Amino acid sequence: MSDSENKEGINDSSDIPKDADVSSENSENITIPSHSGDSTLQKKNKVDIFLKATANAPIMKRRKWTVDHDKTIAWIISFLRKYFKLDSSESLFLYVNQSFAPSPDQVVRNLYECFGTDGKLILHYCQTQAWG
Amino acid sequence: MATDREVLREIWEGKLPVCFELNQEEVNDLQAPEPYYLIVPRLSYFPLVTDKVRKHFVKYIHPDKLDAEIWLDYNGTPLKWHYPIGVLFDLNNSDIQLPWTITVHFDKFPEEELLHCTSRETVETHFLSCLKEADALKHRTQIVMNMQKKDHNQLWLGLQNDKFDQFWAVNRKLMEVGGEESFRYIPFRCYYKDEPCLQRLIKPLSESGCRKTLSQLLEELNMLQDGLSQLKVTTHGIEPPLDTPLQWMSEHLSYADNFLHLIVSSVG
């Protein structure tokens, strides 16, 4: 399942900060406070995600990111793989609600609408299957 | 809990006749193979029913591709193995003639469009993940997480081996309302036009405690701009009346993954 993501990770070695779709700490998007209501984010077609390491996964310096709401889970996994410069043999899993692994083609907006709390979607990532 | 057992059984027994053909460009033999015919359960997933299809065609393809993962297309559109078969059929329903003719490929895997499926375990992982997600929507205290591994196995084997009683002996626990009047939210995936499927939080009861219906779900999804009469909702090959209560639908018309899969299309 992760083959395509791996490939993408290898082929595309662009630096993360240059990635236009993820707003960085200093960009204008950061002016959106995390508690801003749904309406603000939806107008901008963005979703706040909060990435939390689980088990032995590497830690990210910043955990809150703003992404386009039509981005997929596969895209976020690929982003994390690039961020951590993971080898293609290393796996990475994403979980919602600390219980289920969303399908790679699931769009962030669906998860945010159903499982978002306080204006953000919390995603746990780990390198071994944490919640089966 | 689900009570109309007859309905559950009817849904479970939904089947589709499929005619599998090997992609002509991949035939590496003087003679093209005969098509392979199967009757497949609507609730199942293609990787669970295509072992024999693979075995039938593998003799006719280039030896380099013997170990390749097979993938399927209908009319040029790759079929997502992680959607239940019935959903894939209903999505293309308007122009399919039975038997449903599907092309089998061993070559040129469409990386952009399909997820890889290397074994039945991949399907099992996906299936259990969907069950957990549905459970998180339905219940305040999650049931799947507190089940034993053997219950998970029973659900999976029931689906895989097409055993209604085996599956429902465990699944009925997931369909309980747990002392409440209804589920917390209705687990559903709504397919409309070519957009990615839509999931939103929709409660089965209104503020005043009345049971919400299918038309209220469409309304909450902002799909009624052109009026109710312009929309058609299909699931399991049928069009449930728009005044069907959502709670009842969730208990009786959900797929094995515990989600309602609703295909919405414009009339005419």
From TrEMBL, chain A:
List the PANTHER family hit by this protein, alphabetically: AUTOPHAGY PROTEIN 12, UBIQUITIN-LIKE PROTEIN ATG12
Membership in a protein family: Belongs to the ATG12 family.
Primary localisation category: cytoplasm
Q: Name one GO cellular component term.
A: phagophore assembly site membrane
Q: Where in the cell is it found?
A: Cytoplasm; Endomembrane system
Q: What does this protein do?
A: Ubiquitin-like protein involved in autophagic vesicle formation.
CDD domains named among the record's database cross-references: Ubl_ATG12
GO terms for biological process, alphabetical? autophagosome assembly; autophagosome maturation; autophagy of mitochondrion; glycophagy; piecemeal microautophagy of the nucleus
Biological source species: Nezara viridula
Quaternary assembly: Forms a conjugate with ATG5.
Which Gene3D superfamilies did the record assign?
A: Phosphatidylinositol 3-kinase Catalytic Subunit, Chain A, domain 1
User: Which keywords are on file for this protein?
Assistant: Acetylation, Autophagy, Cytoplasm, Isopeptide bond, Membrane, Ubl conjugation pathway
Cytoplasm: is it a keyword of this entry? yes
Database matches in InterPro entries: Atg12 (IPR007242), Ubiquitin-like_domsf (IPR029071)
Describe its membrane topology.
Peripheral membrane protein
Which GO terms of the molecular function aspect are on file?
A: Atg8-family ligase activity
**What is this protein's record name?**
Ubiquitin-like protein ATG12
Compositionally biased, Basic and acidic residues: which spans?
1-21
Region of interest (Disordered), ranges? 1-40
Q: Where is the composition biased (Polar residues)?
A: 23-40
TrEMBL record, chain B:
Question: GO MF annotations for this entry?
Answer: Atg8-family ligase activity
- Give compartment(s): Cytoplasm; Preautophagosomal structure membrane
- First-listed, main subcellular location of the protein, grouped into a coarse class: cytoplasm
Tell me which residues make up the Autophagy protein ATG5 alpha-helical bundle region domain. Answer: 121-176
Every copy of the Autophagy protein ATG5 UblA domain together lies at: 11-106
Membrane topology is: Peripheral membrane protein
Keywords from UniProt, A to Z, are: Acetylation, Apoptosis, Autophagy, Cytoplasm, Immunity, Isopeptide bond, Membrane, Ubl conjugation
Q: Which Gene3D superfamilies match?
A: 3.10.20.620, Autophagy protein Apg5, helix rich domain (1.10.246.190), Phosphatidylinositol 3-kinase Catalytic Subunit, Chain A, domain 1 (3.10.20.90)
**GO BP annotations listed:** apoptotic process; autophagosome assembly; autophagy of mitochondrion; cellular response to nitrogen starvation; immune system process; negative regulation of programmed cell death; piecemeal microautophagy of the nucleus
Question: What sequence ranges are listed for the domain Autophagy protein ATG5 UblB?
Answer: 185-264
* Metal-binding listed as a keyword: no
* GO cellular component labels: Atg12-Atg5-Atg16 complex; autophagosome; mitochondria-associated endoplasmic reticulum membrane contact site; phagophore; phagophore assembly site membrane
What does the subunit comment say? Forms a conjugate with ATG12. Part of the minor complex composed of 4 sets of ATG12-ATG5 and ATG16L1 (400 kDa); this complex interacts with ATG3 leading to disruption of ATG7 interaction and promotion of ATG8-like proteins lipidation. Forms an 800-kDa complex composed of ATG12-ATG5 and ATG16L2. The ATG12-ATG5 conjugate interacts with RAB33A; this interaction is bridged by ATG16L1 and promotes ATG12-ATG5-ATG16L1 complex recruitment to phagophores. Interacts with TECPR1; the interaction is direct and does not take place when ATG16L1 is associated with the ATG5-ATG12 conjugate. Conjugated with ATG12.
Q: What does this protein do?
A: May play an important role in the apoptotic process, possibly within the modified cytoskeleton. Its expression is a relatively late event in the apoptotic process, occurring downstream of caspase activity. Plays a crucial role in IFN-gamma-induced autophagic cell death by interacting with FADD. Involved in autophagic vesicle formation.
> Can you tell me which family this protein belongs to?
Belongs to the ATG5 family.
Q: Which named protein is this? A: Autophagy protein 5
